[in-house]
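lol forgot to send this yesterday, sorry. struct tokens for the thing we talked abt
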């Protein structure tokens, strides 16, 4: 209880500190109050005297109570189509776990290429790649599908976290899977839930449309290179003692036999998955909004009883995300409509006066990337820093498309630095196979490689695509 009071003092103190600082010229009282509430909400989401969603709801209420925004504006984030897209995608992930289709897909890949340790790791990454194309819940993908299989196979080879056998297999798998997870977060709009918030920022602040297909096409080339290089790096620095895993193939085969043929629900879900992803990718051709497509998919799953209404109501994580993403999206967007980001951009741009914009962009992007050490989630990092850093990079003369893409993908890739960077981090770290020092070391090495790949190959690819 005492520690919780300390957390509340930190939250309230951060808001009061901003509120008591004299307002810069040209900044309204409402805008400054909104900034104070936003800072307190972000701090609250990090230290969490209450759950993150509860803290954001309190922040939304505070914007109306203290007159920072009219109540209609305070609640407007919950009408945003991106928030509903995330909600629908969470329900699809519920169906994936409920029917067992995700588990079956993982086992099929393990059976195909899991004979060697590196192939076993890639088989689980391939599964995650498929699931990330429409499931934004990294916790559901990792905690519900990928991790249980990886842990079962590790224990099959007598690799456990607490008896000195972690290095046989489990340490390699946990490290590799997480570092690839953050790459997959960057690969798809649905890679992790706050990507839709980032897409909203890009649209509103820089008039850059990051729809599903544009996001994926822009990411796929550097992502594939990272997904090839990073596992090899982990294999080099954390080499597993066991190099071949034929028992994994047998394990997968036996599990698939137990599952039997595809059930009716699995067939329906597989068809819905294929149709939804195809419609998302071809949105430019038919013009149907991505959120409408996702909601239609949910309607079909409900109509065919693959999902029951009770499943929708029981998906607590989805409703938590709905509350705190809708609130954060509203507050960040409202701040973006004030002149505060411009003031920040002008101040930061002054520090790089006379620099060529490529050099200034690189330095600012690196500051943005490694600032992730101070945040406990991609969402907190992006909502606090994306808009002001985007304003700065554009102010120094960087092309808007290039600045948006670099900050967008760095928002996700930077989560690999720590064991708290995003939802799956504490899940994998919590297995106990990897010590914190080793985790951070691999995270730092992976960050350098990812930055090199995405700032060279990625930038060149975006030039070919005409983004800058």
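and heres what i got for the seq, position by position
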């Amino acid at each position: 209880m005492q520690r919780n009071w300390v957390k509340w003092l930190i939250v309230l103190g951060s808001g009061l500190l901003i509120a008591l600082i004299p307002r810069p010229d040209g900044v309204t009282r409402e805008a400054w109050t909104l900034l104070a509430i936003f800072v307190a909400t972000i701090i609250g989401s990090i230290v969490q005297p209450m759950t993150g969603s509860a803290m954001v709801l309190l922040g939304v209420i505070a914007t109306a109570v203290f007159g920072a925004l009219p109540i209609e504006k305070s609640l407007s984030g919950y009408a945003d189509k991106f928030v509903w897209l995330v909600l629908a995608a969470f329900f699809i992930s519920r169906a994936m776990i409920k029917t067992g289709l995700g588990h079956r897909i993982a086992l099929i890949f393990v059976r195909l290429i899991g004979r060697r340790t590196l192939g076993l790791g890639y088989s689980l990454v391939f599964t995650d790649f498929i699931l990330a194309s429409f499931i934004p819940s990294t916790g559901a993908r990792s905690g519900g599908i990928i991790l249980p299989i990886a842990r079962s196979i590790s224990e099959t080879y007598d690799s456990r976290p607490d008896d000195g056998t972690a290095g046989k297999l489990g340490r390699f798998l946990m490290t590799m899977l997480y570092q690839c997870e953050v790459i997959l977060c960057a690969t798809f709009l649905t890679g992790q839930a706050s990507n839709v918030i980032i897409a909203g920022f890009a649209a509103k602040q820089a008039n850059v449309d990051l729809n599903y297909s544009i996001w994926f096409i822009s990411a796929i080339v550097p992502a594939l290179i990272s997904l090839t290089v990073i596992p090899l790096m982990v294999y080099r620095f954390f080499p597993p003692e066991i190099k071949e895993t034929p028992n994994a193939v047998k394990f997968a085969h036996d599990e698939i036999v137990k599952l039997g043929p595809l059930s009716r629900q699995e067939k329906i879900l597989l068809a819905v998955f294929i149709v939804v992803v195809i419609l998302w990718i071809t949105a430019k051709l038919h013009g149907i909004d991505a959120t409408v497509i996702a909601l239609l998919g949910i309607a079909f799953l409900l109509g065919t009883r693959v999902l029951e209404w009770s499943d929708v109501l029981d998906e607590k994580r989805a409703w938590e995300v709905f509350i705190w993403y809708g609130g954060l999206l509203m507050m960040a967007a409202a701040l973006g409509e004030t002149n505060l980001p411009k003031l920040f951009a002008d101040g930061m741009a002054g520090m790089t006066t006379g620099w060529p914009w490529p050099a200034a962009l690189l330095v600012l992007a690196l500051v943005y990337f490694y600032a992730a050490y101070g945040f406990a989630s991609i969402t907190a990092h992006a909502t606090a820093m994306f808009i002001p850093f985007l304003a700065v990079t554009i102010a120094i003369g960087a092309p808007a498309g290039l600045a948006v893409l670099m900050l967008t993908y760095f928002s996700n890739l930077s989560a690999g630095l720590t064991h708290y960077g995003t939802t799956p981090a504490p899940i994998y770290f919590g297995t106990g196979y990897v010590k914190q020092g080793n985790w951070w070391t691999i995270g730092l090495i992976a960050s350098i490689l990812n930055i090199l790949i995405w700032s060279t190959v990625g930038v060149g690819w975006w030039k070919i695509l005409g983004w800058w």
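The chain has a mean pLDDT of 88. anyway ping me if u want another try
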